[in-house]
Amino acid sequence: MLLDTAFDFNKATDENQQKKMKANKGKTCTREREFLYKFNAGNQRLVLTVPLKFPVQENASHLHGRLMLLHNLPCFIENDLKQSLSQFIEGESIKDYDKEAEAALKAVKSGEVDMHQLANAWAKAYTETTLEHARPEEPSWDEDFADVYHDLIHSPASETLLNLEHNYFVSISELINERDVELKKLRERQGAEMDKVMQELGKSLTDQDVNALAAQHFESQQVLENKWTSELKQSTAIQKQEYQEWVIKLHQDLKNPNNSSISEEIKVQPSQLRESVEGNGRIYEEQRQLEESFTIHLGAQLKTMHNLRLLRADILDFCKHKRNHRSGVKLHRLQTALSLYSTSLCGLVLLVDNRISSYSGIKRDFATVCQECTDFHFPGIQEQLEIVQQVVLYARAQRSSKSKRQHDSVNRNGGNEEKSKNIERNQSNILPGEFYITRHSNLSEIHVAFHLCVDDNVRSGNITARDPAIMGLRNILKVCCTHDITTISIPLLLVHDMSEEMTIPWCLKRAELVFKCVKGFMMEMASWDGGISRTVQFLVPQTISEEMFYQLSNMLPQIFRVSSTLTLTSKH
Fold first, then answer.
1. Do 163 and 270 form a contact (C-beta atoms < 8 A)?
2. Where is this region: Disordered (predicted)?
3. Among 200, 307, 418, 500, which has the highest number of CB atoms less than 10 A from its own CB?
């Protein structure tokens, strides 16, 4: 009996393998050979014939399994069939490889193939695919500067670094003060002009005259603002270049003890700190801050200790530099600078709208604080936002094209077109629960800002644990685990400012929801990072009452497992 099967590998493989075979048709010649296998089943002598196309793209074990199922072959021939099939495929493949090798050598000897091009192709293949022959990656300027700065900030030169940074900060602050004064004078002058025009409206002047003056005022403001924006941008660029070059030179100078000219020349003594002029209207006043701290343990078997803090404070207080601190300027910045390139970063959650910009609300205030001090390590806030916008547009385009293909397929099969309307929206905006990240080295107490998108729904009292804002917090905590952010500050009520509808029951209900959700997310952290101790700061607006603050403070230990203290007394 003859068992014959025409087994076409082009049909047996998946779509990707078919594409590979089609691409390889021009490179290798496809040959078909028959595999013969003879075996006895009782008194019958059977022969299995399988046409195979070489080069074989399929694993021999997969083909063996299909043959056993297709022909209901007896189990006692399974191992022998597998061995014979593997030997046949290996032997025929080696013959083909030998023929191709001989043909290639013949082409080289006859001059059909350029020896130099062939050698270059092989050299390129080795350098691109094997680590042994690849060129070592050269560290970038940012990596070199980061290593140098990390060494200096953990050395006696840290005081010099912080003093220089503070002087640069005061210099930019003075420029900003000059800008604000000039803009204020311009607005006052324009306001007086507009008042005079409005008094003459209907007498000697018309609405067109008023509109023309308003347009002229707007243009004058734009020209002045653009002038100061350009000047500030140029000043920060010069400061950044000078600072980075100075840090590199100082590091090289300190490596050579015989040459201390650079450090002596540039070193700033504590008495030489420049102080900003008080009373200029831009010094941030410190208000009375309420704070409660707790130590908790989470986990059933593997317990992890965490620190929790409840604070009544403005969220931007963690970003602003205190210019009126005549003493302790260095101490205020030292901890943030020491941990800049470490595994103990500090993060902050900002609640923003769906537009990636810095033109209004908390985004504008945050950008203003960022621009008051030069960032010597990362791009400026505007440059980072532009990069985020490009990434969002690219991601939206990819998702949109994929969704469109899926909806087209559904519509062809008789599906409705209502779902496709969701695709038609502003592709540059983000959705509630999504967030983008900016990095900073020039802020007071944080290194990373999470800009979490929320909508007006967070001001209602009916959000649940599945709300996009809550799920956004979960994803933020996951990023903290994977990127060494050990301190994170979260708006407890998911708002930055209080309003009339936020009553005491509203605040208690919202705080309970956030506390419980964050507790669950922190317990998940143990599986994400192995149980690292972290600090979570819950922030409430400054306008909240002390009574409300202490009610929230009493709620926290009821939800989290707060560590109890033990009092040891002597028997005597």
1. yes
2. 399-424
3. 307
